[in-house]
Design a protein that fits this description.
Number of helices: 4
Strand order of the largest sheet: 1-2-3
Number of strands: 3
Helix content: 40-55%
Strand content: 15-25%
Oligomer: single chain
Structural class: alpha+beta
Length: 138
């Protein structure tokens, strides 16, 4: 009985077992924060790019009006200068309108979640990020 009570009171190795149980949850938390932070940063880049495009599209100059192609070029240049890492699409509406009309610029991109997407396949492998800005022609 003495040997059994000694085995029950032994605590050698318990820290390693606790570490092995907690480590996967801790790593999921850390990688989740990093990946979602990166997604949030990229979404803000898309929002800023759509704002730049909508501002350019809403300006009515006396000599010429900015076209949808010029707005798309400005958005593309902004994202390339900012170092946006992924592919994106730019859609515009109302750029060729009159004073008071609304101009809408939408920038869309897919964001891949490499770690969380592999741990939870299917639903979290890719997230669609979108930045939309609506302004009135001046």
């Amino acid at each position: 009985m003495n040997r059994l009570s000694r085995l029950l009171r032994a605590t050698r190795g318990t820290a390693a077992v606790e570490f092995a149980l907690v480590l996967p949850m801790f790593l999921m938390l850390v990688f989740g924060v990093v990946e979602l932070g990166t997604a949030w940063y990229q979404k803000q880049m898309l929002v800023n790019a759509s704002r730049v495009g909508a501002r350019m599209g809403s300006l009515l100059n006396d000599t010429t009006t900015n076209t949808a192609a010029q707005v798309k070029t400005a958005v593309t240049q902004y994202l390339q200068t900012a170092g946006y890492p992924g592919a994106f699409t730019v859609t515009t509406s109302g750029v060729d309108g009159n004073a008071g009309d609304q101009v809408q610029v939408t920038v869309t991109s897919n964001f891949q979640l490499p770690v969380l997407g592999n741990l939870i396949p299917g639903s979290l492998s890719s997230v669609t990020l979108q930045g939309v800005t609506v302004m009135r022609h001046e």
